[in-house]
Design brief:
single chain, alpha+beta, HIT family, subunit A, 5-stranded antiparallel sheet, 3 helices, globular
Amino acid sequence: MPKPKKGPLVDLSYAEGAGGEEYLKMLQNAEETDECPLCPESLSKKNQILHCVRKWFLIKNLYPYDNADTHLMLIPVEHLTGIEEILPTDWEDIENLIGWAKGEYPTFKMGGGLVIRFGTNSGVTVRHLHFHLITPITNPETGKVFKGKHVNFPIG
């Protein structure tokens, strides 16, 4: 896959506390080898592709945010770095992946969040465009988040 058009592959300044020591090591390795950890050929054996729709695929986030019941990532096969690179046809793939996740993970049937960071001030650590698809720990009886169990998605 082609590397980002400009700028570093990873940004370690946002990595502190983001996923622990293992996450930091993964980012440092990506920086040293210039291999993107989110490109399909670089995914670790621990993080295999769950489902693929044309130009996008879905994986589990190995470093889920606190209080996430399920934390997946939707990633383009091609190494994109900017939100402006998403094409109108990509949204159909993204919608299909979300539909697949709803069928596989019960809490997605109740709801969740689809979040993307972009740019240098957003807190993004890997410069391979990706969405976070997250469901919080939810009370199955009420369909509501348990008190104090909200997922905080950091930006910046």
